[in-house]
């Protein structure tokens, strides 16, 4: 009985084996014939390379991977040459405002396959020593990118530095300028909180916000305090408007970027003439952080560093009200100039 079963099994194995070998032989023969029958596609009948706008997302993701390797310093000179990678001057700059959400905006725009960010704040136009190094020095600070991509840098000090508008104008008079703003009093407190943290790290004491923001002699708002001055957006913008028409600016609502970033990013995509590519998939709310975080793909996501989203100290309500009243007329002017209105008090 056992002998009979073993013979049957051997027979089955033999049949299966023969079938498998037969199939392999058939496939080898078939592929060989196909190779001979189908002539290699002649160059002239091949499809032309796609236009930059038509490059499929997957290709761009591959390119992103390559750019990532480059940033890590793993890509070779040969790869740079082969893929036509270049260091381009920025075609758009986030010029400010400090504590408006400049980092979040840059990182979120970098989700777009046609955008490449300069990771560090370069401080080329606001720092005389850097500026004296010349435009080639600036270009060398830029990340590698594909020619169709646009490079964006952010240095929030640009917005408030006297010399910067003229210097940027000399580099590129048609550059696109992004300004992200928050309700001015909140921004001032955020600014203060950052400085306070720096002092505490060095074990230094620091004044309370109220003492800095209000002049103790006059009991009025202290306009000499930098955190207050920076929040007078219209004053700074007016300097920029001596060089650039208002159409070259786009105002981002930094408060909405915190609570609902996608619509703000879509407005920026449009301003930069980019196809809409950033989607809700790329942004997810992280309850632990209390902020939206970034999802590049199924494996790679990140939140901003802990230095973004600090807890603000509580500020005396009368001081808050005084500041809000102080900023009010400047805000009205800002809305009028920019054509963007906010619900600021
Ligand atoms: P706070 O620290 O006051 O909350 P900047 O990058 O210009 O310094 O701005 C910092 C601010 O960006 C933070 O201010 C934070 O509120 C805001 N922000 C906006 N979107 C954010 C995000 N997704 N993650 C962390 N912070 C974000």
TrEMBL record:
Positions of the Sulfotransferase domain: 90-334
Keyword Transferase assigned: yes
Enzyme category, top tier: transferase
Chief location bin: Golgi
GO molecular function: [heparan sulfate]-glucosamine 3-sulfotransferase activity
Active site: 99
Annotated Gene3D superfamilies: P-loop containing nucleotide triphosphate hydrolases
This enzyme's EC code(s): 2.8.2.-
Subcellular location: Golgi apparatus membrane
Catalyzed reaction equations: alpha-D-glucosaminyl-[heparan sulfate](n) + 3'-phosphoadenylyl sulfate = 3-sulfo-alpha-D-glucosaminyl-[heparan sulfate](n) + adenosine 3',5'-bisphosphate + H(+)
Protein name, as recorded: Sulfotransferase
Cysteines engaged in disulfide bonds, as pairs: 293-303
Organism name: Labrus bergylta
Family to which the UniProt record says this protein belongs: Belongs to the sulfotransferase 1 family.
InterPro entries membership: NST/OST, P-loop_NTPase, Sulfotransferase_dom
Transmembrane segments: 12-29
Sequence positions that bind 3'-phosphoadenylyl sulfate: 99-103, 182, 190, 292, 308-312
Keywords of this entry: Disulfide bond, Glycoprotein, Golgi apparatus, Membrane, Signal-anchor, Transferase, Transmembrane, Transmembrane helix
């Amino acid at each position: 009985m056992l002998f009979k079963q073993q013979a049957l099994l051997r027979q089955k194995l033999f049949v299966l084996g023969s079938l498998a070998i037969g199939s392999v032989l058939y496939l080898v023969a078939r592929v060989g014939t196909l190779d001979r029958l189908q002539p290699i596609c002649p160059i002239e009948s091949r499809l032309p390379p796609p236009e930059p706008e038509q490059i499929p997302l997957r290709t761009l993701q591959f390119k992103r991977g390559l750019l990532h390797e480059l940033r890590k310093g793993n890509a070779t000179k040969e790869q740079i040459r082969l893929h036509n990678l270049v260091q381009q001057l920025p075609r758009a700059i986030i010029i400010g405002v400090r504590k408006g959400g400049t980092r979040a905006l840059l990182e979120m725009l970098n989700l777009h396959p046609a955008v490449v960010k300069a990771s560090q704040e370069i401080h080329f136009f606001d720092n005389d020593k850097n500026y004296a190094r010349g435009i080639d020095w600036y270009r060398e600070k830029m990340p590698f990118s594909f020619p169709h991509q646009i490079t964006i840098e952010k240095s929030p000090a640009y917005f408030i530095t006297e010399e910067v508008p003229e210097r940027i104008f000399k580099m590129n008079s048609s550059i696109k300028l992004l300004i992200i703003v928050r309700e001015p009093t909140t921004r001032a407190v955020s600014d203060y909180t950052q400085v306070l943290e720096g002092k505490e790290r060095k074990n230094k004491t620091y004044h309370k916000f109220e003492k800095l923001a209000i002049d103790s002699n006059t009991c009025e708002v202290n306009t000499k305090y930098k955190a207050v001055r920076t929040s007078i957006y219209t004053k700074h913008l007016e300097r920029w408007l001596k060089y650039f028409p208002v159409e070259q600016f786009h105002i981002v609502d930094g408060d909405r970027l915190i609570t609902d970033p996608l619509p703000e990013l879509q407005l920026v995509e449009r301003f930069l003439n980019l196809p809409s590519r950033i989607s809700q998939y790329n942004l997810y709310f992280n309850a632990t952080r209390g902020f939206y975080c970034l999802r590049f793909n199924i494996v790679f996501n990140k939140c901003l560093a802990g230095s973004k989203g600090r807890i603000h100290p509580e500020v005396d309500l009368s001081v808050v009200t005084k500041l809000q009243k102080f900023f009010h007329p400047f805000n009205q002017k800002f809305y009028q100039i920019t054509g963007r209105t906010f619900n600021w008090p």
